[in-house]
Amino acid sequence: MTKEFAATTPNTPLDVAIIGAGFAGMYMLHRLRRAGFAVRVVELGPDVGGTWYWNRYPGARCDVESLQYSYSFDEGIQQDWTWTERFATQPEILRYANFVADRLDLRRDIQFGVRITSGRFDTTANQWVLETDSGTAIHARQVITAVGCLSTANVPQIAGMESFEGQTIHTSDWPRDGVNLSGKRVAIIGTGSTAIQAIPEIARQAGHLTVFQRTPNFSVPARNAPLTPETVDWWKKNYPDLRKKARETMRSGTIYDLPTRPAIGTDPADVRAELEARWQKGGANFAYAFSDLIFDETANAMAAEFVRDKIRSIVHDPETAEALCPKDYPIFCKRICVDSDYFATFNRPNVSLVNLRQTPLERITSKGVQTTDQEHEFDVIIYATGFDAITGSLLRLNLTGTQGRTLKEKWADGPKAYLGLATSEFPNLFMITGPGSPSVLSNVLVSIEQHVEFLSDLMEHIRSHGITRIETTAKDEEDWAHHVTEVAHTTLYPKAASWYMGANIPGKPRVFMPYIGVDAYRKKCAEVAAQGYVGFQMNGADAVAHASAG
Length: 550
Ligand code: NAP
Description:
This protein is an alpha/beta fold. It has a domain at 14-152 and 389-469 and 519-534: FAD/NAD(P)-binding domain (3-Layer(bba) Sandwich), CATH 3.50.50. It contains 15 helices and 20 strands. The radius of gyration is 24 Å and the shape is globular.
């Protein structure tokens, strides 16, 4: 159903235009509408859900436990929705998004099937003019992006791709009607979190699956299982305390069993016993076994070797096992993968691994994949090659700021955004989970709620003070970007060529983008708000002069 929306004009702008109807855009809409703003969401897809709408590949699940990967802002919603598995599947998460959209009657203010093609800030009217592919511009005083951190596909440029005569699929744009892989010769390129979830499922369906691996990944077992009514009841009863704990005391915004000691100085047998206990328990809790795993290379190496030993014990063929063992970067510095039977899948007779480090991929042919030693023939090639993370979807909006520069031009050397929320030269523009905020290094639902609540308070603040223009400064964003980098360099994270660093996209600046520490970040934002939004310059009726945060 396509709803007609009233035209916006320079004289009748929206108070706020939100871009994206995933979990961030949905909650932002709810908060602003409840506060009485004239607000509309513009969404490219035909329905709500964002990343969980598009990523329908077989095996897609969240790797944060379902009881924690959900909104906390509405007691009725969290009591009335019941998760069925420890790690929810994509269809269940999408049902949840729809449940929330229905419950809060969100769709009446969401314009679906519309792409923002460009935008410019009108400095006279202090408004954004967003151009759309429907030909109708949207005028809004404020724009809030809720475009997601992992929503612009990284489609690699491999010679001959267009010549392949079989079916080509990117995992993040999986056909909504599904794909019949039964009996087919299937290739999958990539071995990140997505592929690690998809490979076991695809292997069960396909005639033969060939996995093309460039860099092996560390993965821990999910040990997914149905949730018992007792577990669900316990969480529902204790939600207020648990949510508070996740928000305020966790580096990641997810409750894990926090470490009580460093690995260095602990008896190596005890280190292995602790890692083993967590391996058996399943999930990313494994990463929290010791306090120094992400800070100390020797401690980190112990955990890495433990996982490599597990891979060697699971995979029967020693050569395949060795190829699957990551050796050239620290564990936990690329997002840890959480799998169900990933390594064991390589014991199946219908699965083979091509190690691209030994036989690099040369080109795609009409029949399949040509590596340096042979042509592999396929009916289907699946690209599980990830995303232009964090900044990709922001730059694609093609926004131009007050100095005539696009965001892409301004961020040519890497993104700089004060608190990950706003960038100078782009007044009245705010980013939910933007670069420099915890975003992908957190339980993103927790980070989304924090940003939405900060921004709705800010919108109310500027409305009540008659502010027409709000902008951060070059100095404030520079100082914050410096701090983000400084915090990252207290850890081992920068030692891996990860998508956190932009390293997966040729030519992308190598800048560590997420902020490490949900707890510290929340405190900082609260201080900024308490000090009258220090770091933002505001102009308007009250002409409030705000000092620099630095
Ligand atoms: P990814 O981690 O970036 O992995 C992409 C894979 O494609 C890598 O193995 C990469 O190899 C390979 N690749 C890229 N270009 C290639 C080329 N030209 N030739 C050969 N191989 C190529 O992407 P992802 O797996 O989609 O995961 C991205 C993030 O999404 C995750 O880290 C996670 O945060 C999120 N995610 C979450 C879940 C969940 O919650 N369960 C599930 C899926 C994804 P190299 O490493 O050598 O570049």
